[in-house]
Amino acid sequence: MDNLAPYACSDENSRGRIHPEDSPVYRNQFQRDRDRIIHSAAFRRLEYKTQVFVNHEGDLFRTRLTHSLEVAQIARSIARELRLHEDLAEAIALSHDLGHTPFGHAGQTALNHCMKDYGGFEHNQQSLRVVDKLEHKYAEFHGLNLMFETREGILKHCSVKNARLLGEVARRFIDKTQPSLEAQLVDLSDETAYSNHDVDDGLRYGLISFDDLLEIKLFRDQYDKVANRYSSINERQMIHEIIRRMINVMVVDLIDTSRNNIESAGLETIADVRKQSQALMSFSSEMSALNLELKQFLRENLYQHYRVHRMSSKACDILTALFDAFMSDIKILPPEARDQCMAMQKESGDEGIARGVADYIAGMTDRYAIVEYERIFNPRQLSFVNLIP
Ligand code: MG
How far is the CA of 348 from the centre of ligand 1 (A)? Predict the structure, then answer.
């Protein structure tokens, strides 16, 4: 890439791949990572995984796939403007949610609860597990063998206890150092994307109201601008005009504030980025406060809405029932998942089996989880019985 800032990640200053490979011919190393992610099975499954609303509730709602694309689009704009590595930012953005369970956060909470005696379940760590271990199609290694910086960016959060198990890629959680600026900016792009698209989806679904949103300053300020400028637009246009401006003011604030932070820190190399006591990519304190107000509004009015809770509680029942059924008899797992569990049992006993079951469940799409539940628990789906004349 041309014109990279000296403290940006690059092929030259990268810590490379676990399994050394020849350099790509016409791509840089992070383009290769992005391409591997897009060609992975886990990426294709994002299309049928819930962001907030279950996939089959309507074709217009965000899914994990469209969310990841929106995060990538925001992250690339920021990276390009700050002369950071755009391909790395894109690769992290496209892979950051690969480890999510079906049914969004409800699924993660349920699976974490099921795994409480076996090391727990955390979607960030699962995303790393997907790209490090669970994709099985390269001849020379398990996983996608991604660059260190891509893997580091995927692992957004990690407890110190788990960091000790994960090694180098998680070392910063022990040493309290910072990841690359590209990793930091994707984290904030994620927030920018979901706060805004959840407003859009929440309004479309009728769970939050336009009038209530006018109490929220970030929304109100942009509403005033749009209403002053256009006197006769319909509600859909109004909502879109407000949300696109909200995304824009957040991104502009993030770029300006981060650029100032970077300048005052006097960065020269990537090592300078890592040794900072706090992240240099940030919103201004005013924007952080506005964003917080919006997020609290969404938490109270959208994420805790009874209709979202109903979906969550059903999702929790489905995943818990699947987990318990597989744990009590791994012979009902499809052969590939069963063999995987048995191999992991040899290494770490019951914990290995549980991890294999969690991998299988976490990999499911919403609709696959529902179908699998039906297959296991619905007596009418006993196909062998149906075959008896
Ligand atoms: Mg996300």
Answer: 31
Dist. CA 68 → ligand 1 center (Å): 6
Query: How remote is the CA of residue 67 from the centroid of ligand 1, in Å?
Result: 7
Cα of 342 vs centre of ligand 1, distance in Å, is 32
- The pTM for the full model equals 0.94
48 Cα: distance to centroid of ligand 1 (angstroms) = 15
In eight-state DSSP terms, residue 130 is I
166 touches 128 (CB < 8 A): yes
- Ligand 1 centroid distance, CA of 187 (Å): 8
- Tokens coding 180: 């690359």
Distance from the alpha carbon of residue 122 to the mean position of ligand 1, in angstroms: 13
pLDDT, tens digit only, all 389 positions of the chain: 779 999 999 999 999 999 999 999 999 999 999 999 999 999 999 988 887 766 566 667 788 999 999 999 999 999 999 999 999 999 999 999 999 999 988 999 999 999 999 999 999 999 999 999 999 899 999 999 999 999 999 999 999 999 999 999 999 999 999 999 999 999 999 999 999 999 999 998 888 999 999 999 999 999 999 999 998 999 999 999 999 999 999 999 999 999 999 999 999 999 999 999 999 999 999 999 999 999 999 999 988 888 888 888 999 999 999 999 999 999 999 999 999 999 999 999 999 999 999 999 999 999 999 999 999 998 877 665 544 44
User: Taking the chain, what is the end-to-end CA distance rounded to the nearest angstrom?
Assistant: 67
Residue with tokens 């000296």: 6
Q: Name residues whose C-beta falls within 8 Å of residue 182's C-beta, 6 or more positions apart in sequence.
A: 8, 9, 79, 84, 85, 88, 89, 92, 149, 153
Cβ(298)–Cβ(202) under 8 Å? Answer: yes
How far is ligand 1, taken at its centre, from the CA of residue 61, in Å?
Answer: 15
Tokens for 1, please give them. 């890439």
Domains and CATH numbers, the chain: 29-307 (1.10.3210.10), 308-387 (no CATH)
Find the 65 Cα to ligand 1 centroid distance in Å. Answer: 10
Beta bridge partners of 50: 63
Taking ligand 1, which is a single-atom ion, which protein residues have CB atoms under 5 Å away? 97, 190
**CA separation for the pair 25, 33 (Å, rounded):** 14
Number of H helices, E strands in the chain: 19, 0
